[in-house]
Design a protein that fits this description.
By secondary structure, the chain is α+β, with helices and mostly antiparallel strands. The chain has two domains: 92 residues, no CATH class; 42 residues, no CATH class. The chain is 18% helix and 36% strand. It contains two helices and ten strands; from the N terminus they run ββαβββαβββββ.
């Protein structure tokens, strides 16, 4: 768990090291340009429920401390997503990193010519890299693959 020390009283904000490494790059880039913005995050499970927002400005002292001595490998996609939110009126909203799974690496992937489904209940669905709550029922459907 890493920490951002923010402001003159050095308020501590605990953020997971990998997320903090990505935030550091985006925040440093914005501050280097003289830009001010907000950073919002959800409170961890061990803290009271809610979220917090801080105003980040080049004039406010800021320090990043990482528990892991080795720098994290950065995801360009995650940094771009954080940078895009930093440029919005809502500022950076710290969100979880999205992982795209290559179906060829997924051990549960089975290729078949046709799939017959009967009475299937779906509670959760993943579309692209976004998981959605869904409720659907398929009654005696046949899906042809490879058409």
């Amino acid at each position: 768990m890493g920490t951002i020390y923010y402001g003159g009283d050095a308020s501590a904000i605990d953020i997971e090291d990998r997320a903090l490494a990505h935030l550091k790059v985006v925040i440093a880039t914005k501050l280097r340009r003289g830009e001010s913005f907000t950073l919002t995050w959800r409170h961890p499970d061990d803290q009271p429920r809610g979220r917090s927002t801080v105003w980040l400005s080049p004039s406010i002292p800021l320090r990043f401390v990482f528990d892991d001595p080795e720098p994290a490998v950065l995801s360009r996609e995650w940094m771009e997503e954080l940078a895009q939110s930093a440029n919005s009126s809502g500022g950076i909203m710290l969100v979880a990193e999205h992982f795209d799974v290559d179906p060829s690496e997924d051990e549960t992937t089975i290729e078949v010519d046709a799939i017959v489904a009967k009475d299937i209940d779906v509670d959760n669905a993943t579309v692209g890299s976004v998981q959605r709550k869904a409720k659907a029922k398929v009654d005696a459907a046949k899906v042809d693959a490879g058409d």
